[in-house]
Design goal:
2 copies of one chain form a homodimer.
Chain A lengths: L3 H17 L3 E5 L5 H6 L9 E7 L2 H8 L3 H7 L4 H15 L3 E7 L14 E8 L2 E8 L4 H19 L5
Parallel strand pairs in A: 1-2, 1-3
Antiparallel strand pairs in A: 3-4, 4-5
């Protein structure tokens, strides 16, 4: 049910966060819940994973993560700015040490010349600020979701100083 | 990455909801995002799937889904009452036609004589009320999550009158 690479990353995240007493939240658009699913494949993950949001619509991004409507209008849902705002919103809402957010175009439809299928931004926020990664996947819908979820777990590990 | 049975159910849900113009939200505890992941494996699912919540902690169930603290204290997070309240909360928060919620003990730890590993409740709420299903899975953590996600999609289809 879950890609081995995701489970390996989730195991590492579990070990590091429990050892360092860090709590984590997720905010997912294109991955639809896959990051949370991977995290919770590890028994005992409730010790550090508080929960998350699947904000598939713009309304949900505004209502559940407090992403400003102006930011969505100016940059679009698939943008570095919105990835960052989603991560900051999830962290604030769930009061965690760190939060990760994913927004992208999994495909096969939804792409444009400016924002092609596979374009994905991952944002990670903690008390010290935020990082955003930009990716351009070239797989099918499922492969792009898996690649995005792996990137989310990797950026989380990087941000907390324990790169995978 | 995703069980064939889940994708088949998600395809059916996609077809029915788009045809009937129904919107859907999810609220997941033990499945950790797997229901949302399965739903969003179908291209075009954003036409009916607004989003969801992964409320892994009791705090998240209270804060994000408005599950009353008294309900959690009286019945526990894994209960028919909380499954129903989670579904109603997700539906209200995301203003959808219908919402599904899953709460259970995926294992291997967390069980008790009263509430053994594998015990899972699925709640589905719409404007007409709510249904709750009770299940007792006997697989490992991953198998129990998959079985719970399948039950969630099946109960959704049942509630909207299109049983799988």
């Amino acid at each position: 049910m879950t890609d081995d690479r995701l489970v390996t990353l989730a195991e590492r995240l579990y070990r590091v966060c429990v050892a360092r007493n860090l709590t984590v939240a997720t905010a997912e658009s294109c991955t639809g819940g896959l990051v949370g699913h991977a995290i919770t494949e590890i028994a005992g993950s409730s010790a550090y994973y508080v929960g998350g949001f699947v904000t598939y619509s713009d309304d949900a991004k505004r209502g559940e993560l407090d992403v400003p409507a102006e930011l969505l209008a100016a940059h679009g849902a698939v943008s570095a700015q919105v990835a960052r705002a989603m991560a900051e919103g999830a962290r604030r809402r769930l009061e965690t040490a760190v939060a990760v957010a994913v927004t992208g175009i999994a495909g096969p439809s939804g792409g444009s010349p400016d924002k092609p299928v596979g374009l994905t931004y991952v944002g990670v926020a903690d008390a010290g600020g935020a990082d955003v990664g930009r990716y351009l996947w070239t797989g099918d819908r499922t492969a792009n979701k898996v690649a995005s979820a792996a990137a989310a777990l990797e950026l989380l590990l990087e941000r907390i100083g324990e790169p995978a």
